[in-house]
Specification:
alpha/beta, 436 residues
């Protein structure tokens, strides 16, 4: 499978009457200010819109990817994106449902702003008539005094309204309560929309539906202060068909940064998508057309065991986030680990990621006899069981069959000078690291 997957190759589906209809079909509209007006707005002349990302971690994650791809779809429809990375809101963090956030230092937040900006840049085009711009709300928040903030912005917010917003209401009724710091977050986000409306003519904000209270704080502020009507819409929170939270793999978020989540782990996450979820994921996370996705849906119904839809999903999303080259490497690594590729061609990071979930053992350089290796790795319970495996033709080292029970593995066979991949039969795998 080899598809070009670059900004230049992306496009919206011309089978839809307009971009709004496509967004609806893809399941990207959960809540909005006014559907009829939004459809009109997005079908007309180019407008400026924004989405904000707070640097509360050193990387964006899958939830953010929904917004990044939504921004790209709107840009492909001719509209002008503003990618806001919140240097000031990141110092506070929006209210979480359960407890106060740990506040990060200004230096940490500043470093994370740079990292997130470079991630946002990869998903948008910065060329042409509707080139994207990056903005940082610290630029207009930092010079503002507390008195000016309260007089010019704070006076337009009603505490009763603020307390009814979901994120605040759930915290007010919890044992933790909510600090004034987090309570004020929606005012800061509202001020961002006002600033971007005045400076760039921005008339639309997008975000997750759990951010709806913050999104509407901006539309309400602009209406009160400048008497203008602007819009917002929220995407649904994505959950799996069984109701579990999407994007959590054994308690860990799936990050977009390759250092925090390897391309191999990222690809496997998508490859393991359940049949019940895969078509929805293709709609949201890829630029495949409706006809292509419907074809894959038919394959899920007729030949679910082939997992064509999952493989296409994994290929497309990993290519979008990590590049086609990285994705091809991952596929080659999977093939090599399971016996149909060259293990020696894998770089050390890819090999480590591809074998991370396998049983592993460390042995001394003097313990490289095939029988000792099979026992040390746990693939054989005893030396006699190891001999039996070898005699039956089921022992492999780095995908090469070992038929001699007295064989000793040479240093020249070690992957990256220290690793071996052992296999018993077709599917039982383990890795061994040779101590220095």
């Amino acid at each position: 499978m080899s598809h070009v997957n670059t900004l230049e190759s992306q496009h919206n589906d011309s089978a839809f009457a307009n971009i709004w209809q496509e967004l609806k079909w893809r399941g990207l509209v959960h809540v909005s200010t006014d559907e009829t007006e939004l459809e009109k707005l997005l079908s007309g002349e180019p407008v400026t819109y924004y989405c904000g990302f707070d640097p509360t971690a050193p990387s964006l994650h899958l939830g953010n990817l929904v917004q990044l791809l939504l921004m790209r779809r709107l840009q492909l429809a001719g509209h002008k994106p503003l990618g806001l990375v919140g240097g000031s809101t990141g110092l506070i963090g929006d209210p979480r449902p359960t407890a106060e956030r740990t506040l990060n230092t200004k230096e940490t937040v500043s470093e994370w702003v740079g990292r997130l900006q470079s991630q946002v840049q990869r998903f948008l085009s910065f060329d042409g008539d509707n080139a994207a711009r990056l903005v940082n709300n610290l630029d207009w928040t930092a010079p503002l005094s507390a008195i000016d903030f309260l007089r010019d912005i704070g006076k337009h917010f009603r505490v009763g309204t603020m307390m009814r917003k979901d994120a605040v209401a759930s915290r007010l009724s919890s044992d933790e309560g909510i600090s004034y710091t987090e309570f004020s977050y929606q005012i800061l986000q509202g001020m961002d929309f006002l600033q971007l409306n005045r400076e760039y003519g921005c008339v639309l904000q997008t975000g997750g539906s759990d951010q709806w209270g913050n999104l509407t704080s901006g539309t309400e502020l602009i209406r009160k202060v400048d008497g203008k009507v602007v819009h917002a819409f929220g995407t649904p929170l994505i959950t799996n068909a069984d109701g579990t939270k999407f994007g959590k793999s054994e308690g860990n978020a799936i990050w977009l940064d390759a250092e925090m989540c390897t391309p191999y782990t990222f690809y496997q996450f998508w490859l393991n998508t359940a049949d019940a979820d895969v078509i929805d994921r293709l709609k949201i996370f890829t630029f495949l057309s409706r006809s292509e996705i419907e074809e894959l849906a038919a394959q899920v119904a007729d030949r679910p065991f082939a997992r064509e839809a999952q493989r296409r999903l994994a290929y497309e999303v990993t290519s979008l986030v990590h590049s086609v080259e990285a994705t091809e490497k991952v596929i080659a690594a999977s093939a090599a680990v399971f016996g149909s590729g060259d293990l020696h061609a894998l770089d050390e990071k890819t090999l480590a990621a591809a074998t991370a979930e396998l049983p592993s053992a460390t042995v001394e350089p003097s313990e490289l006899g095939i029988i000792d290796l099979l026992v040390a790795s746990g693939l054989s319970d005893s030396k006699s069981a190891a001999r039996r495996t070898i005699g039956e033709g089921g022992a492999y080292v780095n995908n090469a069959k070992v038929s001699d029970p007295d064989a000793v593995i040479g240093a020249d066979q070690l992957l990256h000078g220290k690793y071996l991949l052992l296999r018993r039969g077709k599917k039982s795998l383990a890795t061994v690291e040779v101590a220095p």
